[in-house]
Amino acid sequence: MRLQRSGVIAGLAYLVVGLAWIWITQPPLYLIAWLFVVAVAGSYIPGEANQVSLARAYLAVPALAYAITGRFALLAVVVAVAGLTDLVDGTVARRFGRPSQFGGALDPVVDGVFMGALCVGLAVGGYIPLWLALVVIARYLLPALAGGLLIASGRRPELRHTLTGQISTVLILVLIGGVCLFRGLNQDSSGLLNAAEVVIPIATLATYVHLGFALRRPISAPTPG
User: Fold this and answer.
1) Element (H, E) at 124
2) Which domains are seen in the chain, by residue range?
3) Exposed, middle or buried: residue 142 (CB in 10 Å: 0-12, 13-18, 19+)?
4) Spatial separation of the C-alpha atoms in residues 8 and 96, rounded to whole Å
5) Which of 81, 9, 79 is nearest to 50 (CA)?
6) What is the pLDDT of residues 23-60, one digit of tens each?
7) 0.90 surpassed by pTM
């Protein structure tokens, strides 16, 4: 692997914004370290669209900090920006004509990093049940581990979004983000939280089932050349 120009430029830009945020808010030091870890890893990742996707990994830091402290108005903004990057990265990939297998694999990973940080923070702050946070983490972690095991065993699964996976990500963003927004507006969020406790586990299970059927399909051999 080698340094990528787009990765270095995007990493520096994200660090400038991140350090400005750190100077204003003075979060715990371990959150500062995370920004540098993502910047170093991102400097080796090619492609403009992938750098847009990495924004969600950077946004995991303020999401965790605001969720723990219950600063829901700011947290709702962070969730909205993260959702926007999830919509934009595919458009950027098509605009520059470089959609890739790597990008398809990176997208759910950064989704998992962001949503995991958000839900852990909310659980630590006592705003959502711990079990629901663990369900959200498992929604992204288990498919990533399954894909990694397949690749390690010599198989080359087709890395792409499934319909149920996309729907579950949208539902998690809308429901958990909605809880944050309602709390930020000092409105009762219990209805959304009750819905999240039912819908998110069902959507996660549907994602597993769909992914299991997709992985059972025979994988075509790569075309020579």
Assistant:
1) helix 101-124
2) 48-216 (1.20.120.1760)
3) middle
4) 18
5) 9
6) 888 877 777 888 899 999 889 888 888 888 899 999 99
7) no
